[in-house]
Every structure is written in C-alpha cells, then in structure tokens.
Write a structure and sequence with these properties.
alpha/beta, 2 domains, 5 strands, 46% helix, binds S-adenosylmethionine, S-adenosyl-L-methionine
Length: 247
C-alpha cells in the first residue's frame, strides 16, 4: 500500500519486503512507543498509518486531499487505531508526538516551504520528532525530473537537499540525514517491472485512456535509470553511489 521508496539495505528482495523494512526503519528512527500520537502528512493509501498503529500501538492520523486515496485508506485502516482526514496540509490541526512526511514534500512548492515547515512545527509537541523522506535532486545533475515536472506532472517540484535543509533548519534541529538513493533506484526498477507484469490488469482497472497516459511516461522513467547508470565519474560528486559508499 505504499508508493514511495522502500529500503533494501537489510536484505529485502521484493517491493513489498522493502516497504516493510522501510516502515520498520521509520519506526525505529522515530522511537515509537505505545500511546504516542503520530500524524502522517500525505498518507497515500494508508499503509504507514495501519502499520504503525498495528505494530507499535500508536494512534495515527493520516492526511490526504485525494478523495479516492482517503476512501481506500479508510477501508485499509478500518480495524486499526487510525483516523484518515481528507484535507490539505494547511488545514491540519492538533498536537502530535511524531510526524511523518513520506515523499509528499514534492507537492509543496518551494515558495511554500517556510509556511509548510512552520505548520509542521506547530503540530509537534515539545520533544517530538519529524521524519521526512524526500526525493532530492543534485544541483547541476542531468535534470530528467525537471522535464517531468514541467511537461508531465505540472505541480510536482523536486528540490535539492540544501533547499530542504535550509528551510527546515529554521524550524527544527536536524539530527540525522540518511541517503537512500540506492534504495530509491532499486524501488523504481521494481515499480517498472510490476507495471509491465500487470499491464493487462492495470488497463482493465484504469481504463485505456488513463493507461495510455501513464504508459507514455514509461520510456522516460527508463531513461532516468539509464542516465543514473551512465553518470560520469568525474567530477567526483557525480560519481555513481554504491551502497558501500554510503554506509
Ligand atoms: C507519492 S505519494 C506518497 C504517499 C505515502 N506517503 C506513501 O509513502 O505511500 C504523495 C502523497 O501526498 C499527498 N498530497 C499531495 N498534495 C497534498 C496536500 N496538499 N496536502 C496533503 N497531502 C498531499 C497525496 O495525496 C499522496 O498521498
């Protein structure tokens, strides 16, 4: 039920396993304890809210503006200690021990970062923690996603790590930055495989028009992966990362 990068470093070999490993990693970084409250901003289909409520005894609020996602998330979480709210992040209220923002920041344009992080700060109880997972771009790198942002998705904005850190650090002490770019790439490969394997099912579910629009982006997704592979090795900050280089 996730559509964000999984975590493969601990031995996961499938998309689903990597998602569970990612959720376990998030729970451990947040040091979740029973009775805590957590808000998941941009909760998608409710995978994280359900997992945290069922496995760690926390009470979770999930937020999404999407009608269909909110409905699916409510169904998915109906037997768990989870409330799903269909709303924009600006409307969020309350105080929480923990906050997760998993690959949702790309829907917040850069000019809104200050307002966004101020809002997140206002939702956090004293001593609380925030975990943000974000697809950051390297400055000066071949900007395949810039093309997508401009011509395909329109409202999505992938910022650089320094954009995020410089805005977030006005509101929070940043205690840990973890590069999971290898995991993002691995997730993406699994995603493309899953789409190709389930082509018939997806066409039936989404209808030919939606499928066609979606499929037209696939070559670009592959180009992105190949571009990653063929990154020049000099200057050194463009060197292709390996897991060994990260840990
Ligand atoms: C890429 S999905 C990630 C979903 C989920 N966090 C996951 O890991 O599967 C981005 C999420 O951000 C949500 N989102 C987009 N715009 C939003 C907004 N203005 N306020 C709150 N959530 C938003 C979308 O509805 C979607 O659930």
């Amino acid at each position: 039920m996730q559509h964000s990068s999984g975590y493969f470093a601990t031995g996961a070999s499938t998309f689903a396993e990597a998602q569970v490993e990612k959720l376990k990693l998030i729970a451990s970084k947040l040091q979740l304890r029973p009775g805590m409250t957590l808000i998941d901003v941009g909760c998608g289909f409710g995978g994280l809210p359900k997992f945290m409520a069922d496995n760690y005894g926390v009470s979770v609020t999930g937020v999404t503006p999407s009608d269909s996602m909110a409905k699916t998330a409510r169904n998915h979480c109906c037997r768990s200690q989870v409330t799903i709210l269909q709303q924009d992040w600006r409307k969020m209220e309350g105080k929480f021990d923990r906050i997760t923002v998993i690959e949702m920041l790309d829907h917040v344009r850069k000019q809104n970062y200050d307002e966004f992080f101020r809002k997140i700060q206002s939702l956090l109880k004293p001593g609380g923690r925030v975990l943000l997972q974000h697809y950051a771009m390297d400055p000066g790198h071949f900007h395949f996603t810039e093309f997508l942002c401009k011509y395909q998705y329109g409202l999505i904005y992938f910022s650089t790590l320094s954009d995020v850190v410089s805005h977030a650090s006005n509101y929070f002490h940043i205690s840990n930055v973890h590069d999971i770019s290898c995991d993002a790439e691995e997730t993406y490969k699994h995603f493309i495989d899953m789409v190709e394997t389930n082509r018939d099912k997806m066409t039936t579910l989404a209808g030919p028009k939606v499928w066609k629009a979606f499929e037209s982006r696939m070559p670009w997704r592959k180009v992105a992966l190949n571009a990653e592979r063929s990154r020049p090795t000099k200057p050194s900050w463009f060197a292709r990362m390996t897991r060994e280089g990260l840990h």
